[in-house]
Amino acid sequence: MIEVKGLSKRFGSTQVLTDISAVFKPGMINQVIGKSGSGKSVLAKCIVGLHVPEEGEVLYDGRSFHHLEKDEKRQVRQEIGMLFQGSALFDSLTVIENVMFPLRMFGVMEPGAMRERAELCLQRVSIEPEKNKLFPSEISGGMQKRVGIARAIAMQPKYLLCDEPNSGLDPQTSIVIDQLIAELTEEYGITTIVITHDMNSVMETGDNIIFIHEGRKHWKGGREELLHTDNPELSAFVYASGLMKRVKKAMGG
Amino acid sequence: MDAGLGPWLPPQVPPDIFGPLQRMRILFHIGRYFQLMGEVFGRPERLGVYWRRIIEEIDLLGVKSLGIVAMLSAFMGAVIALQTKSNINSPLISDTLVGFATRQSTILEFSPTIIALILAGKVGSTVAAEIGSMRVKEQIDALDIMGVNSAGYLILPKVIAAVLIFPFLIIMSMFLSVFGGYLIVAATGIISTSAYQTGIRMDFMPFSITYALIKTEVFAFIITTVSGYHGYYTQGGTREVGISSTTAVVYSIVAIIISNFVLTKLLLA
Question: A50 vs B141: CB contact, 8 Å cut-off?
């Protein structure tokens, strides 16, 4: 479980996050939603320790991350998998080398076992074995995302963070990625946090959703409650698209 | 790196090194550079992985610079020989001075310093652009989140590779420069080749080579760390990668010139 308590972050004189508190539970898809520029990605970077918050703390199963010693932080980080918006695969490494990278860096396995584990992870995200020797630039965006997921789960993480996993993908591939994240979360009992502004993704997989607006938490709940919200900012966000407006009309709203 | 690398850092500016804005920022950069060096020389995760990267970097930074270093050195030696001869008007000065001057200027200054300046351009921009691209594509964030010491993983192999391979490049440069002088003397007949050969053997002090190699090691360290620093703290997109690359080259050159003066004063004066 990841717990965020009273987290505030500012850059210079700009307050980006104010007093955010949330609990992200294991085995379900926890989503952080909000408009572009609302502070979602900054929240994600505070959670994984790339940004240091001015106030508040992030607890990984009770361990206050920002108060840990350097070696303890490193230990916690090895339990975190992260999928980046742009996949962040290493250009100079092949698909399989990218997945093997964290295993190789921390020497947790013998070379043969490492390869087997990487192949298993790639197989789990439906990457055909003949793609293993290609470089990231030689595969499609959707495949890069899947390789990114394979790399994130290679170390069998307890926590998985996905920063806008659907950005730049077509609706069909987006659903495949969402379902894959949901399956892995359930299968391994991972605490998964998905940062997104994609309503399809929210309606497809969101179990525990928090809505961030102008750096503050405005709402929390499930996807069913989301559709019947009376929060004006959230309502404007949810029903921004023509499709969602039609859904609202069909529901009698 | 635990510290965030986000937008509170001063924005990047083109390398106007004498501008008032840059003068105010210089202390900030020096402090952050030494902080980064602390990370670079921190405990590596796995030496085996670093070893492989060092070999790759030796190829990228050293072996792939052989051509340009060889060509520049040969022409440099030829020009020194021609210019020295064209400036000797007195019949009292022996022709052996041409060989002597070519050897001395090559070993003491041209090979270690001028080649280092060329390498600052070639290697420095490569290092800054490579690391800068990794920063803007969030690959460095990915390393940090995995718990990898990203500064050490990316910069340390480049530093070790440059420190190992640059002395060989400079020794090769010295040889080719003196040989370039010999070839031009032989081709043009401005002096006899035997006078040139006598000149290059005259009053040779082995410490000159030591002095040149000490300078080379310092310059190798400066080029890789200064460029690594600028690449590592790149912010923004592809335009900023270009700015980082240019800034890295300018600062490396300035640092080389200043340290050249300091080392000469310490070792020779």
Answer: yes
Task: Specify the number of domains making up chain A.
Answer: 2
The verdict on a CB contact (< 8 Å) between A106 and B147 is: yes
Q: What is the pLDDT along chain B (269 residues), one digit of tens a residue?
A: 444 444 445 555 555 555 666 666 788 889 999 999 999 998 777 777 888 899 999 999 999 999 999 999 999 999 999 999 999 878 888 889 999 999 999 999 999 999 999 999 999 999 999 999 999 999 999 999 888 899 999 999 999 999 999 999 999 999 999 999 999 999 999 999 999 999 999 999 999 999 999 999 999 999 999 999 999 999 988 899 999 999 999 999 999 999 999 999 999 87
CA distances (Å), A21 to each of A165, A204, B21, in order?
23, 24, 40
What domain range is B70 assigned to? 51-267
- Residue A232 shares a structural domain with residue A111: no
- Whether B146 and chain A come into contact, CB under 8 Å, resolves to yes
Amino acid at A190: I
Look at the block and give the residue holding tokens 């972050």. Answer: A9
Predicted TM-score of the model (pTM): 0.85
Closest CA–CA distance from residue B224 to any residue of chain A (Å): 20
Binary contact (B144, A84; C-beta < 8 A): no
Whole-angstrom Cα distance, residue B260 to residue A105?
A: 38
Identity of the residue numbered B98: V
pLDDT tens-place string over residues B200-248 = 999 999 999 999 999 999 999 999 999 999 999 999 888 999 999 999 9
**Taking the mean position of all CA atoms in its chain, how far away is CA A101?**
20
Q: Are A45 and A37 in contact (CB under 8 A)?
A: no
Residues of B in contact with A12 (CB under 8 A): 7-8
Q: Does B147 touch chain A (CB under 8 A)?
A: yes
Answer whether B139 touches A (CB < 8 Å): yes
CA B6 to chain A, closest CA, distance in angstroms equals 7
B38 at A interface, C-beta within 8 A? no
A42 touches chain B (CB under 8 A): yes
Cα–Cα separations (whole angstroms), residue A180 to A137, A159, B227: 22, 15, 40
Position B225 in a domain? yes
**8 Å CB contact of B139 and A88:** yes
Q: Taking CB atoms and an 8 Å cut-off, how many pairs form between chains A and B?
A: 74
- For A144, the domain range is 90-156
Residues A123, A177 within the same domain:
no
Contact between A95 and A127 under an 8 Å Cβ cutoff? The reply is: yes
What ipTM was assigned to the predicted interfaces of this complex? 0.86
Are A88 and B2 an interchain contact pair (Cβ–Cβ within 8 Å)?
A: no
Same domain, A134 and A175: no
Counting the structural domains of chain B, the total is 1
Query: What residues in B contact A73, CB-CB < 8 Å?
Result: 2, 147
Give the domain-ending residue among A98, A132, A156. Answer: A156
Longest CA pairwise span in chain A (Å)? 60
**Whether A34 and A56 share a structural domain:** yes
Contact at CB, A78 and B147, closer than 8 angstroms: yes
Is residue B226 assigned to a domain? Answer: yes
